[in-house]
Amino acid sequence: MIQIKNAKELEGMRRANALSAAALKFGGEQIEAGMTTWELDKLICDFILKHGGKPNFKGLYGFPGAACISLNDTVIHGIPSHSEVIRPGDIISIDTGAKVDGFNGDNACTYACGKIDLEARRLLDVTKEALHLGIAQAVAGNRIGDIGHAVQTYCEAAGFSVVRDFVGHGTGKELHEDPEVPNYGTPGRGPRLVPGMTIAIEPMTCQYDYKIKTLADGWTVKTRDGGLAAHFEHSVAILKDRTEVMTRGWEDPDFTL
Ligand code: MG
Question: Binding residues for a divalent metal cation 2, per the UniProt record (predicted)?
């Protein structure tokens, strides 16, 4: 069931998502060649705790980290690891969130470690732009399919593909609520967007084919063909007259809590 948030609940969502955005931005700034993904996760975890939040990914469905950290051909759900070292030229997707006063934030961004090749840069730029085109469709009166259609059309026109097996979602007191928000779809189809809905829009894109595989650890999702993958996510609130990007802070160089 889709939960419609009242004004007070939207305030709670804003606080949780502001901290989530600050934690993501902080994480991106900490990336350095030679560090392990475990070290990066620890920094993000400590940041969330220090600012009065709870890392809401930790323990959810048994996930061990405060952030999913996914390198190169890993699409999502990379487990922070002592043995995985970030190297120059890697792309690093960080997906993290904070729980504050019972409400959940959620956001993601793919960062670069040093200089990356042109095709990797283009994948990141296209995926981020697709996220914003999706957000532009996330307005009261539109339908969920309008979002996915905008994301899919743009990514495919650029020669990339969008993942089918994982999708965005409603957010609220639960990190994952209804409705599902696919990154593909047909305009005018799916649930109607109404004021008070809060949803996470999160294009997951692949350099080549969108088929994925989950590793034996039960979490790590990689592209099947070994191509690169990117993941950008904002949590937004549908309001009567506009759409509020509650996690906009990670994109804002001047943003602080
Ligand atoms: Mg999400």
Answer: 106, 169, 202, 233
Confidence of residue 105 (pLDDT cuts 50, 70, 90): very high
pLDDT digits (tens, 9 = 90+) for 53-79: 999 999 999 999 999 999 999 999 999
Residues in the chain: 257
Cα-to-centroid distance, 148 and ligand 1 (Å): 15
Q: What is the crossing angle of helices 144-157 and 118-137, to 10°?
A: 160
CA 153 to chain CA centroid, nearest Å: 19
Say how far apart CA 174 and CA 67 lie, in whole Å.
Answer: 17
Distance 211 CA to ligand 1 centre (A): 19
Place of tokens 């934030």: 105
> Which of 130, 147, 111 minimizes the C-alpha distance to 250?
111
Q: What is the pTM of this model?
A: 0.98
Q: In this structure, which residues have their CB less than 5 angstroms from ion ligand 1?
A: 106, 200
